[in-house]
Design a protein that fits this description.
With 281 residues, this protein is an alpha+beta fold. The protein contains two helices and 14 strands; from the N terminus they run H-H-E-E-E-E-E-E-E-E-E-E-E-E-E-E. Strands 1, 2, 3, 4, 5, 6, 7, 8, 9, 10, 11, 12, 13 and 14 form a 14-stranded antiparallel β-sheet that branches.
Length: 281
């Protein structure tokens, strides 16, 4: 009987030790920043789409996204078509970057079309617009899905605010897999609304999202400090500030910090007690 108890006790201790060792090893090996990087790329792509649509509806130009080194330099990079013959219920803006890649002022190459269907005057409170895509690619990554934007008017701070819902996916270049992404956001236009100069625009974004990384893992997203998009030349490609919590389905939560305002492609991902630097697409 004593022998049996000894064997049972020994086996129990070995099992507990194995579990603890495995748990520690998994914590040490959890360096996976794929969900964080894929979410950041989706955030950026779909945020760009809204900025492009805003620019088209605001001034009838695409200065920020056309080719050339300075803001406002005219180019054949993108053409706009306004269709207001659909009646009062819905009008359309077609933003056509052409069938070949065009390098835009934010450093990204684009081709294909963005389709903006809108009701009411584009910038009026309570107006809505739905954005779709026709063979639209960013750096050879195909952007799919729909984005619905509702103009909520001006808040107590005098800033224009939008409700934004996305149901989309991105097929990565070179057979890199597919990112799926849905989000529910509010975007506040914090500076530059009154001017026609795009480089003084800044946006603050809050809300939640969920999706699947290119490697196939589900994740959820919560913005804990507003994401800031600075449209100054040299800054507009990535978020320059803000903090996001990402929770993959099978891993602990990780925190992504986009910094404190520097115009770069650097973010940090904190997993447990470890922090890693990533470079954004």
């Amino acid at each position: 009987m004593k022998t049996s108890r000894f064997i049972f006790s020994t086996l129990t201790m070995l099992t507990v030790s194995a579990v603890l060792f495995t748990g520690c090893r998994r914590d040490e090996e959890d360096t996976d920043t794929n969900a964080a990087a894929d979410n950041a790329f989706a955030e950026s792509c779909y945020s760009d789409v809204t900025n492009i649509a805003d620019e088209a509806g605001r001034s009838g130009s695409l200065s920020n996204y056309r080719g050339g080194p300075t803001e406002g330099l005219l180019s054949t990079c993108a053409t706009l078509t306004f269709d207001t013959l659909n009646g009062a219920d819905q009008d359309t803006i077609t933003i056509d970057f052409g069938s070949a890649n065009c390098t835009c002022n934010d450093g990204r190459s684009r081709r294909g079309k963005i389709l903006v269907y809108y009701t009411g005057q584009y910038r009026d409170s309570a107006s809505t617009h739905t954005i779709g895509f026709d063979n639209y690619f960013v750096n050879d990554n195909q952007v799919l899905g729909t984005k619905t934007v509702t103009n909520l008017g001006h808040n107590a701070s005098g800033h224009l605010v939008y409700d934004i819902d996305v149901n989309g996916s991105i097929v990565l270049a070179n057979n890199g897999g597919t990112i799926t992404w849905t989000s529910q956001r509010q975007r506040e236009w914090i500076t530059g609304e009154a001017s026609m100069i795009w480089s003084d625009d800044m946006y603050s974004i809050t809300g939640t999202a969920s999706g699947t990384s290119a490697s196939g893992e589900n994740f959820t997203v919560n913005i804990t400090s507003p994401l800031i998009r600075n449209m100054a030349i040299g800054c507009r490609r990535h978020f320059v500030q803000g903090i996001v919590q990402i929770t993959p389905a099978s891993r602990p939560m990780r925190t992504v910090d986009f910094g404190t305002g520097a115009c770069d492609d650097v973010a940090t991902v904190t997993i447990g007690n470890n922090t890693y630097t990533i470079h954004l697409r």
